[in-house]
Amino acid sequence: MEVTWILFTIGVALILAKIGDSIIERFELPGVLGELVMGMILGNLVYFGIVAPQYLPIVSGSGFTTSATEIADFLAKLGIIFLLFLGALDTDIDQLKKTGVTATVSTVLGVFTPLILAWYALMAMGYPSREAFAGGVLLTATSIGLTVRVMMDLGVLRSEVGAASLSASVMDDFLGIALVIFAVGSGSLLNLTVKIVAFFIITGVVAWYLVDYYIKFAERLHVEKGILGMAVGMMFIFASLAEGWFAAAIEGAFMMGLILSKLPEGKRLMEDARAIGYGLLVPFFFVHTGAMLDMKVFENANALVLAAVMSVIAVIGKIIGRGFGAWITAWGRGREFLTTKENAWMSLQMGIGSIPRTEVALVDLMVAIQGKAIPPSDAPKFIAATLIFITVSVLITPPLLKWAFVKEIQEAKEAKAAEKVGRIQETKEKIKELKGGR
Amino acid sequence: MELESALGKFHSLKLASIMPKPESMPVVTEDTDIMSVLKILRTRHHVWVVKDKRSMELVGVIHYLDVMDIFLPPDAHKFKLGMTSRTLRSLLGGAEKAGDVAEREVLAIEDTATVLDALIKMRRYRSQVLAVVEGDILVGEISLRILIDEFLRLLRVGGATWKSLGSSSQSELP
Fold it and tell me: CB A152 to CB B79 under 8 A?
């Protein structure tokens, strides 16, 4: 009986996820929001008692947990693992190598400013230090997708600011994903640091040099999807190592994806891995996350206050952090550029481009909840706050970017108009010449 | 020559003996504009992108199918975690040079490999062309078209016919 309703729930979740994704994409917003909304609807059917929990085992905790919901939780966890694996596999390491001083400094400050602001703000609100730190980590990583799309529409993606934003975003993801270890990891700081170093030596150095041989070995097996199976198998081993050491399986999945991304053979696994990830596990993860938002949490004013504080820090923290980081480097143009209006404006553009948050914030949230950095009693509040600051950041960015790039847009329009006039002039002259020739 | 022995010989051929010279391959430098690349792709299935034509250091490859990413508007792409590499190939996204749209991770094989090695690699990764490299240097290419030409040439020279295998498809031959 249980299996029947688990299968039913997976089916409904996937169908609704894809429909929600499609609807929200029509509004030029990240499809993930649609998946989350569909999850909220499903989850609240249970929370409000409209559907009995055994028929929709997608929410857990608060007396809802059964063996069926544990299966749903585990599937969602696999979704996070695949999301990170795919994200890393698609990462362009060359882009990271190209990261200049401006992108590097602005990324570091753009990550640590909202982290520290939120850490202190949440502690001031009475949250314990570890929980407040976890709250700060949620605000660290930018989701560059929306910024890329808006910058493309505005025709400024290839500008100095656009290029720096792109390279910064890769490093930003790294930091956002890595920092969650400090939120969920247990033991002393020294113990944790030793484990982190050991983990990165094993996965980042040893595997980096051995992966080539590993893939060659997989090739020799000559079995159906052998390379994919061997790569995913190793990804799970890395994930288990990271889960055992820091309760953050995502780190292992991310590292395996990055390591594979350096090989053409690894990149060729993308389509197959995407089919597993985006065809099943990742949308299920987003719907599951949305389903965890019990709307009744808004009866509690604390949840709204937390959401408001995190939303403000999410926006202001990034603009100040990344913007100031870009400003102090003066875009590599020397001290005389530092105090110019242009430097200030470009830095502001850089800051605004880093506001959106989506996937990594949700991943960090789930890792923090599962790792008990955010205790179950506060989880609903943090889920609500995260979904709200994600929505705010995604909605606020496009108009702010349009405002920040208004001069560039005007210049591009004028250049196009001048080009058109030039072409007309050229054609007129040619006609004149032809007439003169007769 | 029997067809089976012709195939055996074909499989054991070294790539170095059948691959074209780099001068006859579709090669552009990183800073070549996309319009020139598109002109080449009207008649070829791929274009190699090198750092410069003297060193022939391989940077990437642009496949025929990549043209879809070049022509599509940015909003036709989905944005997910990780780099938006496909999206950045869009002309409307500001891609201008061959280096902007080239796929950097190129499937390659060494010139000491055999035709059989190349075929296995092509089938495994569903690729119709492989770069032949010495280190990072592009020294040749091997594509299905080259392999077909070579196989037909071998049959012509050796005089093998489909009949030797008793194939019923003889009538399909010209």
Answer: no
pLDDT exceeding 70 applies to what percent of chain B? 82
Position B171 in a domain: no
Nearest CB neighbour to B85, from listed A92, A157, A265: A92
- Burial of B161: CB neighbours in 10 Å, binned 0-12, 13-18, 19+: middle
The three-state DSSP-derived secondary structure of B132-166 is EEECCEEEEEEEHHHHHHHHHHHHHHHCCCHHHHC
CATH fold for the domain made of A2-404 = Na+/H+ antiporter like fold (1.20.1530)
pLDDT in tens, A147-167: 877 787 777 877 888 888 877
Buried b (16+ CB within 10 A) or exposed e, A172-194: bbbbbbbbbbbbbbeeeeeebee
One-letter identity of residue A34: G
Whether B142 maps to a domain, the answer reads: yes
Q: pTM value?
A: 0.84
**Number of domains making up chain B:** 1
- Cβ–Cβ under 8 Å, residues B63 and B103: yes
Residue given tokens 């605000």 in the structure block: A139
**A149 vs B74: CB contact, 8 Å cut-off?**
yes
Beta carbons of A152 and B94 less than 8 Å apart? yes
Enclosing domain of residue B85: 3-166
Q: Domain containing B12 — which CATH number?
A: 3.10.580.10
> What are the tokens at A79?
């979704």
Do residue A90 and residue B83 have CB atoms under 8 angstroms apart? Answer: yes
Does A170 lie at the interface with B, CB-CB under 8 angstroms? yes
Q: Which of A145, A155, A267 sits opposite B105 (nearest CB)?
A: A267
Residue B173 lies in a domain: no
d(C-alpha B94, C-alpha B73), whole Å: 11
Confidence of residue B159 (pLDDT cuts 50, 70, 90): low
Judge: A170–B105 Cβ closer than 8 Å, yes or no.
no
ipTM: 0.75
The pLDDT tens digits for B109-146 are 998 999 999 999 999 888 999 999 998 899 999 999 99
| Distance (Å) from the alpha carbon of B130 to chain A's nearest alpha carbon | 11
Phi-psi domain of A137 (left: phi exceeds 0; alpha: psi -120 through 50; beta: other):
alpha
* Residue B167 phi, psi (nearest 5): -70, 145
Task: Identify the CA nearest to A295 among candidates A118, A33, A23, A47.
Answer: A47
Residue B112 falls inside a structural domain: yes
Name the residue facing B80 among A145, A261, A267 (closest C-beta).
A145
pLDDT at A95 over 70: no
Give the B-side interface with A, CB within 8 Å.
Answer: 74-75, 78-85, 87-88, 90, 92-94, 96, 103-108, 124-127
